[in-house]
Amino acid sequence: MVTQRAAEDLGLRIARFASESGVSAQRLASETNIPYATLLRRLAGDGRLTVVELDRISRSLSVDPASWFEDAA
Question: How many CB atoms lie within 10 A of CB 48?
Fold first, then answer.
Protein backbone atom coordinates (compact mmCIF):
# COMPACT_ATOMS: atom_id res chain seq x y z
CA MET A 1 0.00 0.00 0.00
CA VAL A 2 1.23 3.48 -0.86
CA THR A 3 1.46 5.76 2.15
CA GLN A 4 0.58 9.43 2.10
CA ARG A 5 4.26 10.25 2.56
CA ALA A 6 5.21 8.10 -0.46
CA ALA A 7 2.55 9.82 -2.58
CA GLU A 8 3.90 13.22 -1.54
CA ASP A 9 7.48 12.18 -2.29
CA LEU A 10 6.51 10.88 -5.73
CA GLY A 11 4.63 14.06 -6.55
CA LEU A 12 7.59 16.18 -5.46
CA ARG A 13 10.02 14.11 -7.52
CA ILE A 14 7.89 14.53 -10.62
CA ALA A 15 7.33 18.25 -10.05
CA ARG A 16 11.05 18.83 -9.46
CA PHE A 17 12.05 16.89 -12.57
CA ALA A 18 9.49 18.69 -14.72
CA SER A 19 10.67 22.06 -13.42
CA GLU A 20 14.34 21.20 -13.99
CA SER A 21 13.40 20.10 -17.52
CA GLY A 22 11.63 23.38 -18.18
CA VAL A 23 8.18 21.81 -18.34
CA SER A 24 5.48 23.80 -16.56
CA ALA A 25 2.63 22.12 -14.73
CA GLN A 26 0.26 23.69 -17.24
CA ARG A 27 2.15 22.13 -20.16
CA LEU A 28 2.41 18.78 -18.38
CA ALA A 29 -1.33 18.80 -17.75
CA SER A 30 -1.99 19.58 -21.39
CA GLU A 31 0.39 16.91 -22.71
CA THR A 32 -0.94 14.22 -20.37
CA ASN A 33 -4.63 15.09 -20.67
CA ILE A 34 -4.83 15.35 -16.88
CA PRO A 35 -6.90 18.33 -15.73
CA TYR A 36 -4.58 21.04 -14.42
CA ALA A 37 -6.18 21.21 -10.96
CA THR A 38 -6.06 17.42 -10.65
CA LEU A 39 -2.40 17.34 -11.66
CA LEU A 40 -1.52 20.00 -9.09
CA ARG A 41 -3.30 18.02 -6.37
CA ARG A 42 -1.52 14.80 -7.38
CA LEU A 43 1.89 16.49 -7.44
CA ALA A 44 1.20 17.90 -3.98
CA GLY A 45 0.47 14.38 -2.73
CA ASP A 46 -3.24 15.03 -2.29
CA GLY A 47 -4.56 11.84 -3.78
CA ARG A 48 -2.49 9.25 -5.53
CA LEU A 49 -1.43 9.08 -9.14
CA THR A 50 -3.05 6.29 -11.05
CA VAL A 51 -0.93 3.94 -13.15
CA VAL A 52 -2.36 5.58 -16.28
CA GLU A 53 -1.51 9.08 -15.01
CA LEU A 54 2.01 8.02 -14.05
CA ASP A 55 2.49 6.44 -17.48
CA ARG A 56 1.29 9.60 -19.24
CA ILE A 57 3.57 11.79 -17.13
CA SER A 58 6.54 9.50 -17.71
CA ARG A 59 5.96 9.49 -21.46
CA SER A 60 5.55 13.25 -21.55
CA LEU A 61 8.81 13.76 -19.67
CA SER A 62 10.60 10.87 -21.45
CA VAL A 63 11.35 9.11 -18.18
CA ASP A 64 11.15 5.42 -17.33
CA PRO A 65 8.27 5.07 -14.83
CA ALA A 66 10.41 2.88 -12.55
CA SER A 67 12.91 5.71 -12.14
CA TRP A 68 10.43 7.67 -10.02
CA PHE A 69 10.87 5.04 -7.32
CA GLU A 70 14.67 4.70 -7.38
CA ASP A 71 16.33 5.81 -4.16
CA ALA A 72 12.88 6.47 -2.67
CA ALA A 73 13.46 4.23 0.32
Answer: 16
Count: domains in the chain: 1
pLDDT bin (cut points 50, 70, 90) of residue 33 is very high
Cβ–Cβ contacts within 10 Å for residue 69, how many? 12
CATH number at residue 38: 1.10.260.40
42 close to 11: Cβ distance less than 8 angstroms: yes
Q: CA separation (Å) from 68 to 17, 52, 58, 73?
A: 10, 14, 9, 11
Q: What is the pTM of this model?
A: 0.85
* Position 57 in a domain: yes
Domain, as residue range, for 10: 4-62
